[in-house]
Design goal:
The termini are far apart. This protein has 4 domains: 2-50; 60-154, Orthogonal Bundle (DNA polymerase, domain 1); 170-332, hpI Integrase, Chain A, CATH 1.10.443.10; 347-380. Helix 8 (194-209) packs across helix 12. The protein has helices at 30-47, 60-70, 78-92, 102-114, 120-138, 142-145, 170-182, 194-209, 213-217, 249-256, 282-291, 301-312, 317-324, 329-332, 340-345, 347-365, 372-380, and strands at 2-7, 10-17, 20-27, 224-225, 230-233, 243-246. It is mainly α. A hairpin with a 4-residue loop joins strand 4 (224-225) and strand 5 (230-233).
Length: 381
């Protein structure tokens, strides 16, 4: 956009909209022309996704079906994706895609928490599905849908603060381990409690490796590398790249005790009769926390616990990013503050260097018959 002075008190505001050059003459001051320019820009940006042929009547219900076929059904979280899609269909299914502008998406998003009572985090996950779908509608399916811009881009998303710092203290770790040990065997026998042992091992893997719950459930026996002390994480999440996490000898010993299900490569196959591909540990994990007297703790906080203790014991931030599978180091930097004790310990290295330098200087000050070259070699040698 631009402003051109035509004469005193007359300005021409020019801009491009809908593939055409447009202009308007403004009688008044330059400040008034600037104000109109900003207004035209705002209107243009707000309505750019409606630059369509009005005869295109592609309904949201049809878009939802296409998105499910091409994307939603192929995701690991397909069951959750289906639920989100049906929720969008219930609210916006009968509307034409060209009618679903930024305001309509904003109202739908706000109702997720205000009307449906979803948590802020869950609402964001629903919005992510909407955003992805409308992005496809505005790009690869734009001729059918009639829009060329994602209306969800105009919505301000209130992402919850995920910088949760909850991790297990040393005392809580002991209590958790005790609660896990108490039910390892069937009462009064030396026979493993198979039902509880499954939970026990899931918790220990998450705690000792920092793996996500979905990654733990995705483990196969072929991923257990006993000789190298590693677990291969193949779950296609957050980038889809395979990575390796450390497996301590203690964890390897626990894994060797887990019975192998004949004909099943997964360590933790879904329980018999399960109708969903998603596996959860919420209820049994909550019972475990009650027995360990641990409050305000989620399963995902086991991952935070691993990362926190890793850094507090002198771990490297970039290595931690690789272990956790973070695509961006900024995601890992939240744990950097926990490395302060490690940073303080590095002062001993500096003190040793200083001591060595002082020792060399003391030797140089003593009367001797060394040449200057020999003195330099002694100092830096």
């Amino acid at each position: 956009m631009s402003i051109h002075k035509k004469s005193d008190g007359l300005f021409e505001v020019r801009w491009r909209e809908g593939g055409h050059n447009r202009s308007v003459f403004v009688h008044g001051s330059y400040e008034l022309a600037r104000k109109i320019e900003r207004k035209k820009m705002s209107v243009r940006d707000e309505n750019r996704h409606l630059d369509i042929k009005r005869e295109v009547n592609f309904r949201m219900s049809t878009l939802l079906d296409r998105y499910w076929t091409h994307y939603g059904s192929k995701k690991r979280s397909a069951s959750r994706e289906k639920s989100v899609i049906e929720g969008i269909r219930e609210t916006l299914g009968r509307a034409f895609v060209r009618e679903v502008d930024g305001s309509a998406v904003s109202r739908w998003y706000e109702d997720l928490t205000a009307v449906r009572g979803l948590s802020a985090g869950t609402a964001v996950r629903h919005f992510n599905v909407m955003h992805h779908m409308m992005e496809k509608a505005a790009t690869i399916w734009s001729k059918e849908t009639g829009i060329d811009r994602n209306p969800a881009d105009l919505v301000e998303v209130k992402r919850p603060d995920d910088q949760r710092d909850r991790y297990l203290s040393e005392d809580e770790l002991r209590r958790l381990k005790q609660a896990l040990d108490d039910k390892t065997y069937c009462k009064g026998t030396n026979k493993l409690n198979q039902t509880f042992f499954r939970l026990r091992l899931i918790v220990l893997i998450a705690l000792a490796t920092g793996m996500r719950a979905s990654e733990v459930f995705g483990l196969c026996w072929s991923d257990v590398m006993y000789s190298e002390g590693l677990l291969a994480v193949r779950a296609k999440l957050k980038g889809g790249k395979m990575r390796y996490v450390p497996m301590t000898p203690e964890l390897a010993g626990e894994l060797r005790r887990l019975p192998v299900v004949i004909g099943e490569d997964r360590l933790f196959p879904p329980k018999a009769g399960a109708t969903s591909g998603r596996q959860r540990v919420e209820r049994s994990f909550e019972d475990l926390l009650k027995r360990a007297m641990i409050e305000n703790f989620r399963f995902h906080d086991l991952r935070h616990t691993f990362a926190s203790w890793y850094m507090m014991n002198g771990g490297d931030l970039y290595e931690l990013a690789k272990i956790l599978g973070h695509s961006n180091i900024k995601m890992t930097e939240r744990y950097a503050k926990l490395a302060r004790a490690h940073i303080a310990r590095t002062g001993s290295t500096a003190r040793e260097i200083w001591r060595l330098m002082e020792a060399k200087n003391a030797e140089m000050l003593m009367p001797n018959k060394r040449t200057p070259v020999e003195d330099v070699r002694l100092l830096f040698g």
